[in-house]
Design goal:
By secondary structure, the protein is mainly α. Helix content is 71%, strand content 0%.
């Protein structure tokens, strides 16, 4: 019989010597610290995300709270800095509007007060400028599409990114208006072949 089978055979006591005897279960606090450190190594996380992961691994609430409090105390967890980073990167890289950013912060477990403070970094004029950039980029790939469908696609793209109807319509109207002006300017231009 193999050594592994002898150890796991029912009715036998755990070994009193060797590595198996010395291999005790890790305490819950060590488990909680390991979970938090592993998650924070990959990317910043909110306190709520870490607590949720610990709960899924059956870490008792009081142990999780103790570890999370200590990590917050030493600066490894900072929901305000996390929220600011998330707002900045999602707005700049993905073009998300304040409404979509607020939803994402809620999903990540950031409290309303902290989220609102982070969202102050995105001003209405920033949203309007970003909406124009997004429409200009998307408009290039929709040239030749039926004008009604094109307009609907451009407005829908902004809506999916959290832009309100007013901002979306103004951005689309401006970009399509600029295109119309360029087209009419090129049609009315002097004929160089004469």
């Amino acid at each position: 019989m193999s050594q592994a089978r002898r150890r796991s055979a029912p009715g036998q006591e755990p070994p009193t010597s060797g590595a198996a005897a010395e291999d005790a279960e890790p305490d819950q606090e060590s488990v909680a610290r390991a979970i938090a450190l592993r998650m924070l190594t990959g990317a910043p996380r909110s306190r709520a995300q870490l607590a949720e992961k610990m709960a899924s691994k059956n870490v008792p609430d009081e142990v999780a709270t103790k570890v999370l409090d200590r990590f917050t105390e030493v600066g490894l967890i900072d929901d305000a800095a996390y929220a600011e980073m998330l707002v900045r990167t999602r707005h700049n890289e993905r073009g998300l509007a304040r409404r979509a950013l607020a939803q994402e912060l809620r999903r990540k477990g950031v409290d309303t007060e902290t989220a609102n403070a982070a969202l102050e970094a995105v001003q209405p004029e920033d949203e309007a400028d970003r909406a124009l950039e997004l429409v200009r980029r998307k408009a290039r790939s929709t040239e030749g599409v039926d004008p009604v469908k094109r307009r609907r696609r451009l407005v829908s793209m902004l809506a999916r990114k959290g832009y309100g109807p007013g901002v979306a319509m103004r951005a689309v109207d401006q970009v399509l208006g600029e295109e119309d002006e360029e087209l009419s300017a090129s049609d009315d231009g002097p004929d160089l072949l004469e």
